[in-house]
From TrEMBL:
PANTHER family: NECTIN-4, NECTIN-RELATED. GO terms for biological process: heterophilic cell-cell adhesion via plasma membrane cell adhesion molecules; homophilic cell adhesion via plasma membrane adhesion molecules. GO terms for cellular component: adherens junction; plasma membrane. Its main location: other. Keywords: Cell adhesion, Cell membrane, Disulfide bond, Glycoprotein, Immunoglobulin domain, Membrane, Receptor, Repeat, Signal, Transmembrane, Transmembrane helix. The keyword Flavoprotein does not apply. Residues 28-120, 145-214 form the Ig-like domain. Pfam families: C2-set_2, Ig_3. It comes from Neovison vison. This is Nectin-4.
Amino acid sequence: MFACARHSWDRAGPPGGCADLNPCLPPPAVPPLPSLNPGPALEEGQGLTLAASCTAEGSPAPSVTWDTEVKGTASSRSFKHSRSAAVTSEFHLVPSRSMNGKPLTCVVSHPGLLQDQRITHVLHVAFLAEASVRGLEDQKLWQVGKEGATLKCLSEGHPPPSYNWTRLDGPLPSGVRAEGDTLGFPPLTTEHSGIYVCHVSNELSSRDSQVTVDVLDPQDAPGKQVDLVSASVVVVGVIAALLFCLLVVVVLLMSRYHRRKAQQMTQKYEEELTLTRENSIRRLHSHHADPRSQPEESVGLRAEGHPDSLKDNSSCSVMSEEPEGR
């Protein structure tokens, strides 16, 4: 598109040699009309995904940027036409629940605009948080007769989740009311004891959380509510004491056995020693009583009466007298 202007010049004409209708003036700026197109549905757990694209066409080519606190990457491409140029910018991100509800703004700058044009897109990220059940922080408060007892299921998501309560070991007891994320109980009885399950779901996913309710009877509670750790310590202590006592008994029995064995051996040894002495004395007495065992002196006395012995005695006396005479 070109503009025409009429000027008065002298015969030499205007500088540059243009005619009265001057086609040499540059065309005026054409302001762009930007548009923003959201990307596909965002879900937590996806990889790098297109969040939105922004396109603006004008003359000269406009500038397209993004204004957001969301972490992502932008990429641009341009297309030139005969009298204008189009610029398209895309914004990619990795969806997470923290991005849900955050603004993503396309900013278009151009010489034909008095101020930048801004188009805002609100991000919608589908997610479902883990579920948990509150209300049993102090189990001792759940006693027979308690009123106003409730369980509350905690979760969040987009789209907003729905809640469903069930009982794992049977149907919900009479009088128990399920209202959204809250499960209300009438005055408690032991029949309300059981395992309760909260089921949370939305269009994206589903989550479950369960809790065990144990309604205590005050009449049976004293002396029966023993701490598990304390009970374990007591059991271990009793077992250790029994093992120690058993060890002591075994040591005493073994000591007594060895002592008795030593006494028996000592007594047997003494008996054998006494028997040996008695046998020695008995043999000695029997030896004296037998004539065949008389001593040599008696044999010598009997030998003196023998004739040969007399001869020897006389010879000895003669030999002893000769030296005296000499």
